[in-house]
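Lest this sound abstract, we let one protein speak, letters for residues, whole numbers for local backbone shapes, and leave readers to judge:
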Amino acid sequence: MPEAWVINASPIILYARIGRLDVIERLAPKIFVPSKVIEEVRDGILKDMSARIAVDWAMRYSLPDIQVPPSVEHWDVGPGESQVISHCLQGKRWAVIDDRMARRCTNAHGVPIIGSLGIILRAKVNGVIPLARPLVNKLTCAGMYVGDELIRQSLAAIGEED
């Protein structure tokens, strides 16, 4: 069982946009947000009104940045993603990442991953929310990039067929 979730910018932003950061708090055993991730979210405040909520939330779980190992640098993922993965290598932690290349890097390092869609699915399975589909629809409208077929298969896997 992971000791903590280390969260990247996109899940924080998406969940702030739909007003459901509480779902993350109810599922994660402990939450960490690297400083570099908070900087990335803060950079969007002028463009996205929910970014201020996201920053305020993330600040409660702030974690100082650390040295990124060469094995992570080699992947040339973003600075926030690099910090998330590097922190996950420090112990029993899950990377909460949506970016495809960062997910590949995370997999290559043997770090468990969950993304924005996976959080909703887990919330439904654990009884945190009654239905996943309404939140999946909200996340999609808020900018989550997931294929329709993956959404359909994922919802079917938890008993929410069309």
